[in-house]
Amino acid sequence: MRTFPAAFPRLSGRTVSAAAAVAAAAPMLVLAGRTAVQKPDIPLVADQALLQLATINAGQHAQLLGPYSRFGWHHPGPSWFYLLDTAFLPLGSHSWSFLVATLLLNAVVAGGIVLVVARWRGPVAAVAAAVLVLVFLHALGARQLLSPWNPYAIVLPTALLILLAGVAASGSRLGWIGLGIVASFLVQTHISTAAAVVAVVAVAAVLSLLGRLRPRRLPATTATVEPRPPRRGWVQLGAIVVSSALLVLMWIPPLIQQATTSPGNFRELFTFFRSATSDHGFSDAIAGLGRELAIFPFGHYDEVNPTDSGTPASRWLAILAVVAACALLIAGARWLGDRLVRAIGVAVLVAMIAAGWSITHVNGSLYAYLVAWIAAIPLGLGLGFACLLPAAMARLRAHRRGRAWTLVPAGIAAAVAATVLATQVDAFVALRPEDQAPPAGAAVQAAASAAARSLPAGRISVEADHDVLAWVAATGISLRLVEDGRDIEVPADWVFEWGDQFAPRDDRLVGRLLVVTAARATAVGAEPGTRPVTSGEGVEVFLRIDPGAG
Asked: Helices marked H in 194-312 — which ranges?
């Protein structure tokens, strides 16, 4: 077992790296474990209910597209749903297991970030990366990491994308495949990341090509702290083959949908963005970008309200601070001859520019959740400094000729990691997954239970008024009925949100569940064959028995 006495005299590098990865994931693992033990009843509604329905469909290998958009198309691919299903299905496909799956996947990404750093820069850098990840979790907030909503699912992977861009640019074939997988996941899960993803991948490609044209040897002081344990050829080849197959599989479902449907989702995306207009200009880009960049390490914000169009000094300061830190990182990487870290610095700068451009092309109000992934760009920058730390410590040790110069930073990093970890575990333990459901969730759950008791056996159509309250209730009722094993469908104009599996069929319906606003309740209730089921939260639910409907 290889050891690294310069920083951790009595621990192996693999032990330290593994412990750092577990520490980064621990807050989410603790909450996931507690939720799995308690199994709380969590009535999900609205987007979260529809996301769970899509995940259930993925469990049947039938989900071809990503989350729906309010503009009438879907995000490009279903990888988020299939990833969720790896834990959601084994845990019984309940709403609580849906949230546990979300936590576990975020934990995997957090730990994966640390392991990637450890693989290419050793245990000291891994500990520093774990500290940065934990501080970022604190700044972002536990609720966002518990939410299965796709705008939050892409936050941590954005930092991983920047890190892998550096790995790929340094010449790693496996790093390139990992970069492709993470880039595909981001674009498939939320199209707003497309410009930044393309820009970051392009940076990795250009710098990798330049590195091949002008190879540069690393200083000896750097090489001594860059542990890359020898791997058997067949192990590396197997990893490359499996990763490549996964990358190809990720794009098969949306390509099937495009080939079998007219006009197809890719065509709809192209048509929409070709004709879409935006009222957001340079000042909005600065305001939105500055607000997101300030989250790490200063804390989260109100994600409900739109970004204001003003550009206060704090927004400019946040942007300038990140740019200055990038310049410092790139300068340090050039001084130490570190291609990986230099690529991270350039990728962060390019990602910021692409993010600003994306903001100017947002259609409608600039809600914070639309660009929540930008908050992870400074984390990617911090990971660059973590990767540079071992080389800097080695250079410092060479000049000072004393082991204390490496023991002190390592001790400080370990102490900070322990403190932040304790704080974050406490914050996640204090969070109640039941609170993830909105106030209307309990009322909708009661309505669904009442409807289930009234429904005859057979296929049911769930129909709702074009009203927010009615739509919210209909989503929750639909989810509860599906969880109870009921066969349902929705009207054609709701299929793009609910999913093709709920499209009207030629099967005979045994009844229709009508979710209407209070203003229409009297008129609907007076129609023949209609009887009330329940009411609440500004809506009324009726059951219309219509055996002859088909």
From this structure: 194-213, 220-223, 233-260, 265-275, 282-293, 295-298
Q: Are 160 and 182 in contact (CB under 8 A)?
A: yes
Show the CA angle centred on residue 50, arms to residues 49 and 54, nearest 5°: 120
Pairing mode, strands 488-489 and 539-545: unpaired
pTM of the prediction? 0.88
Instruction: Choose among 352, 330, 354, 350: nearest CA to 340.
Output: 330
Number of Cβ within a 10 Å radius of residue 290: 24
**Paired tokens of 416:** 């900070």
Mean pLDDT by 10 residues, the chain (550 residues): 46 82 92 90 88 94 92 93 95 92 96 95 91 89 88 96 95 90 96 95 92 60 45 65 86 94 91 84 86 80 53 81 94 90 96 93 84 94 93 71 55 62 62 64 70 76 89 89 88 90 84 87 84 80 68
Give the DSSP H or E segment for 420. Answer: helix 404-430
Cβ distance 354 to 199 under 8 Å? yes
- Copy the structure tokens of residue 131: 């500290």
Q: Which of 260, 224, 46, 18 minimizes the C-alpha distance to 149?
A: 46
